[in-house]
Amino acid sequence: MATAIFDALPYYDNDLEVHPELKAKVEKELAREGKPPTTLHPKVPPPVNLFSQRPLLVAELARVEANQPIPPLDTTRHQLPGPLSTPATEEEWQAAVKNAHAQLEHQRLRQTNIALLQQYGANSWRVHNYLLEATSKQLEKAVEDLTQLTTDLNRDRKNSQTAFGAQLTALETRWTELISNVLQIEMANVALEAEIDQLIKKEAELATS
């Protein structure tokens, strides 16, 4: 497959501004073109599938993207309901007692977690925040470097195209001057040939007289 060669200098060419009729033709040609592709370029990486192994996080991410409110907390598991029937059966009292034991164990675990959080939580969050700040600085530096690289590339393209455009304009002007000189020489030759023909005719007339 042959490599496509583009001879446009978008940073230098201004034919569309100088000649509005060309701009109208370009717009007409663009209108005839098909719709842009809906698929991404093959070099664009596929979207990242976040939390593929965490369905709860996937559901939470979907909720946030849909701007849905946070569902209310289920407080029934923190309550100690007694048997609903009167008189209650032994099985219902046993279920109520098991629930009370579970609530007690839950409160004990909460106290343990709170104590651990008070002892180690602050340092853990400091380390976590430090890592996040370091990652954020790395990303900001990467974005800054990419932005600077893009700016430098566009500047180099503009400078090179401006230089090439000026050179092309100078060559085109020189070509126009040479064509004009050639036309003047050809016109002078035609006039000289006509003058020579007249002299030859006049010489022939003088020779016959």
Automatic annotation (TrEMBL):
<dbReference type="GO" id="GO:0071011">
    <property type="term" value="C:precatalytic spliceosome"/>
</dbReference>
<dbReference type="GO" id="GO:0008380">
    <property type="term" value="P:RNA splicing"/>
</dbReference>
<keyword id="KW-0539">Nucleus</keyword>
<protein>
    <submittedName>
        <fullName>Breast carcinoma amplified sequence 2</fullName>
    </submittedName>
</protein>
<dbReference type="GO" id="GO:0071013">
    <property type="term" value="C:catalytic step 2 spliceosome"/>
</dbReference>
<dbReference type="GO" id="GO:0000974">
    <property type="term" value="C:Prp19 complex"/>
</dbReference>
<dbReference type="GO" id="GO:0006397">
    <property type="term" value="P:mRNA processing"/>
</dbReference>
<feature type="coiled-coil region">
    <location>
        <begin position="132"/>
        <end position="202"/>
    </location>
</feature>
<keyword id="KW-0747">Spliceosome</keyword>
<keyword id="KW-0508">mRNA splicing</keyword>
<dbReference type="InterPro" id="IPR008409">
    <property type="entry name" value="SPF27"/>
</dbReference>
<keyword id="KW-0175">Coiled coil</keyword>
<comment type="similarity">
    <text>Belongs to the SPF27 family.</text>
</comment>
<keyword id="KW-0507">mRNA processing</keyword>
<dbReference type="Pfam" id="PF05700">
    <property type="entry name" value="BCAS2"/>
</dbReference>
